[in-house]
Amino acid sequence: MDAKPKTQELERTRGVNLRALLERQARGELWRGFVDTMPLWIGVVPFGIAYTLAAQTAGLTPLQTLAMSLLVFAGASQFTAAGLFAGGAAGLSIILTTLVINLRHLLLSASLAPFLRHLSLWKRAGLAFGITDESYAVAVRRIMERQAGPALLLGANISLYVSWQLSTLAGLLLGGIISDPTALGLGLVFPLSFTVLLMPYLRSRPAWAAALVAGGLALAGRMLLPGSWYLLFAALGGSLAGALVEKKR
After folding, report:
1. Phi, psi (5° rounding) for residue 42?
2. HSE-up of 112 (CA within 13 Å, CB side)?
3. How far apart are CA 93 and CA 99, in angstroms?
4. Is 146 helix (H, G, I), strand (E, B) or coil?
5. How many C-beta atoms lie closer than 10 Å to residue 247's C-beta?
6. Do the Cβ atoms of 107 and 140 come closer than 8 Å?
7. Neighbouring C-beta atoms of residue 162, cutoff 10 Å
8. Positive or negative CA dihedral for 49, 35, 194, 230?
9. Per-residue pLDDT for 230 more than 60?
10. DSSP at 178
11. Beta-carbon neighbour count of residue 249 at 10 Å?
12. What is the pLDDT of residues 154-189, one digit of tens each?
């Protein structure tokens, strides 16, 4: 007569143990995503300081400069917005221009969407706000190969967010000392970092085709086209090239 209560108690115990295991795993992935992204801080910090100097030159107050980093959290868009603000552009023009620059995030998010559908709308929105080129590059392969869950991406997002805010604060404090952080030659860190992050993905002909076509289109667009539209065209062209090679296989 006591078999049923004992069975129910055993099931509850197993359920508690499973939840605890999943929680520990998620915390581990969160920390791993944070730490794995930290080497990229060396490129983020000078970029953030340069943004701060550009914003102050454009006439933004320290509070406005920091608020843009906290709420917008998009380096290239913040640079562009500061330049447009300095030129007296209308608010709608600034919004549309920065929107175009960030259109590449449609592709980043779309590639991760099938692996995040089980999350609630608010959790997906939080990940979408924090996603950057760097955090995506750190987390995407392990998420797609089911080696990690969304906690890894969240940790990478938090790591980049923290470094960006710290670099903005550093720019506000050191603006009078470092007039041009780009002169230190750290602008090369970002391309080299992304090249290293790209290498593990180049394990098939479709991947090589996508990388080479996207890289070629990006270089050509940079030299021939105004604005930042070439980034979206390069991404779409690389994706199409990879899909065509995959279809032939």
Report:
1. -65, -25
2. 29
3. 10
4. coil
5. 8
6. no
7. 15
8. negative
9. yes
10. -
11. 8
12. 999 999 999 999 999 988 887 666 656 556 555 565
The amino acid sitting at 48 is: G
Cα distances (angstroms) measured from residue 38 to each of 18, 147, 156, 211: 31, 20, 9, 25
Residue whose pair of structure tokens reads 């930042």 in the numeric block:
228
Query: How many CB atoms lie under 10 A from the CB of residue 130?
Result: 17
Return all residues near 225 (Cβ < 8 A) that are at least 6 apart.
Answer: none
Interatomic CA distance for residues 132 and 104, integer angstroms: 10
116-120, Cβ contacts within 8 angstroms, sequence gap of 24 or more: 116/150, 119/150
- Best CA proximity match to 72, nearest among 130, 20, 3, 148: 130
Looking up tokens 């105004």 gives 226
Range of 36-40, 156-160, 189-193, 217-221 with top mean pLDDT: 156-160
Give the domain ranges of the chain.
3-193, 202-249
Three-class DSSP category at 89: coil
Q: Which residue has the tokens 């797609």?
A: 144
Q: Is 144 exposed, middle or buried (0-12, 13-18, 19+ CB in 10 A)?
A: middle
- DSSP per-residue letters across 7-42: HHHHHHHHHHHHHHHHHHHHHHHHHHHHHHHGGGHH
Whether 2 has a pLDDT exceeding 70, the answer reads no
Q: 35's torsion region: left (phi>0), alpha (psi -120 to 50) or beta? A: alpha
Contact 98, 80 (CB under 8 A): yes
